[in-house]
């Protein structure tokens, strides 16, 4: 009987801890490590770590890169603009300036997205799936209709 009570007690503790960490991650659903998926090849090209800055905006930096089979792994952002030119991909700001939509906490707007291969910076917006495991990121020029969307997977 004591084992049964200990098992129930342990289950309650575990459930409490799980729900509290879920609640904490629910406050910042964008924060964490994401695996990028190239929309043209279907391969994962990089891992991006997204954090929330003190000003309330979100920034993602590249923490790992992979090459597409049959191509060389690129290490330097030779086409990047301004002070990002010729910087290593690792540690490179990839997305920045995203703000959480106060009306929908799963939406993030007013950001910028760097295409490290082409070196262009686009306007960006993002939306997290209901499960919190997928991020749909859209980079665009001018209006959102003219752009590209990619889906990332949360680690």
TrEMBL record:
<keyword id="KW-0732">Signal</keyword>
<protein>
    <submittedName>
        <fullName>DUF2147 domain-containing protein</fullName>
    </submittedName>
</protein>
<dbReference type="InterPro" id="IPR019223">
    <property type="entry name" value="DUF2147"/>
</dbReference>
<feature type="signal peptide">
    <location>
        <begin position="1"/>
        <end position="23"/>
    </location>
</feature>
<dbReference type="Pfam" id="PF09917">
    <property type="entry name" value="DUF2147"/>
</dbReference>
<feature type="domain" description="DUF2147">
    <location>
        <begin position="32"/>
        <end position="153"/>
    </location>
</feature>
């Amino acid at each position: 009987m004591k084992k049964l009570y200990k098992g129930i007690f342990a289950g309650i503790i575990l459930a409490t801890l799980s729900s509290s960490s879920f609640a904490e991650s629910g406050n910042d659903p964008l924060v964490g490590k994401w695996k990028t998926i190239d929309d043209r090849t279907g391969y994962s090209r990089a891992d991006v770590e997204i954090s929330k800055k003190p000003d309330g905006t979100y920034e993602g930096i590249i923490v790992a890169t992979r090459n597409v089979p049959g191509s060389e792994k690129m290490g330097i952002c030779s086409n990047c603009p301004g002070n990002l030119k010729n910087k290593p991909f690792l540690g490179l700001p990839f997305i920045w300036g995203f703000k959480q939509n106060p009306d929908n906490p799963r939406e993030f707007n007013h950001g910028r997205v760097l295409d490290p291969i082409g070196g262009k910076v686009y306007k960006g917006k993002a939306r997290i799936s209901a499960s919190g495991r997928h991020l749909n990121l859209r980079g665009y020029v001018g209006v959102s209709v003219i752009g590209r969307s990619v889906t990332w997977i949360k680690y």
